[in-house]
Design a protein that fits this description.
By secondary structure, the chain is of the alpha/beta class. It has two domains: 2-120 and 264-323, Quinone Oxidoreductase, Chain A, domain 1 (Alpha-Beta Complex), CATH 3.90.180; 123-260, NAD(P)-binding Rossmann-like Domain (Rossmann fold, 3-Layer(aba) Sandwich), CATH 3.40.50.720. 29% of the residues lie in helices and 27% in strands. The protein has helices spanning 41-47, 121-134, 151-162, 174-182, 196-203, 220-225, 248-254, 268-287, 304-313, and strands at residues 2-7, 14-19, 29-39, 64-72, 84-88, 97-101, 105-107, 142-145, 166-171, 187-190, 208-213, 227-235, 257-260, 295-300, 319-323. The longest helix is centred in the C-terminal third of the chain and has 20 residues, at 268-287. The chain is globular and about 55 Å long.
Length: 324
Amino acid sequence: MKAIQIQNPGPDSALVVGEVAQPSLVAGEVLIRVAAAGVNRADLLQRAGKYPPPAGASELLGLEVSGTVEGVSAEVNDLRIGDEVCALLSGGGYAEVVAVPAGQVFRRPRSVSLRDAAAIPEAFITAYANLVGEGRLTAGELVLIHGGASGVGTAAIQVARSLGARVACTVGDDAKMDRCRSLGAELVLNYKRQDFAAEILKWSPSGVSIVLDMVGREYFERNLSVLAPRGRLVCIATMSGAKAEIDLSVLMRKRLSVIGSVLRSRSVAEKSKLVRDFSERFIPLFEDGSVAPIVDSVFSSERVEDAHALMRQSGHIGKILLTW
């Protein structure tokens, strides 16, 4: 089968399409003929040698796909050859065929095209896992989402709004501001022109209940400053750096929680439960149009370097996809 491989992992890496062995079907897994794969910032880190796959996972890039079931192991009872599905992966999505634990697979929502369904798994399950699971989001709470126009950000705005929260977010340009407002964000801030902490406290003087952060060091102190008493800061990436100083007296006085979270390295059992819970709650919302994957651009596999360049420049709104 064809797959996109990393040449010379590190700062001078390159991506090339080549032939590799097709994965074997093992107990508890299904084979998916890939229609499209989502591009994630984690892919940039992996090709740079900074984010190796978990033990036992494919060395190929790709954390989410959509496609058609091509093989089913005897132990799998709820999927059939020919089913159109989405899947959350630990790796291997940049290929024509991928093997996936059956629990990490869910059927394509009827309202979403097979191609665009590749924009659902990583973004929406990350948003769901961290707002609901880690952040314990409840209706009526106020949420600040950094990177509101990213794949995770556009998903998180919709997840939070669908659960009855009020949403603020940060973005880097005016076009992204308009798109986030259209998704339901009540307050949208351009971090290049505005001090998000000052503006959040004008919007809600008592602060917000949850901050979903992918920036890290640069925002850490201000994130704590905008949290209401018993607020939760959920950290899912460290784009500006992983080390930050913390004033423990602020945590103690406001009784705050700082939560670190990753998705890729969670166990198959934990991911399967997340996929099941997410599917039960959100597939009906996709199908009635309440939420939708936001696809910015689609590249053929031969143009994977262009897709990564767009991701690197943060010039997109929503998801970037690769197709075969």
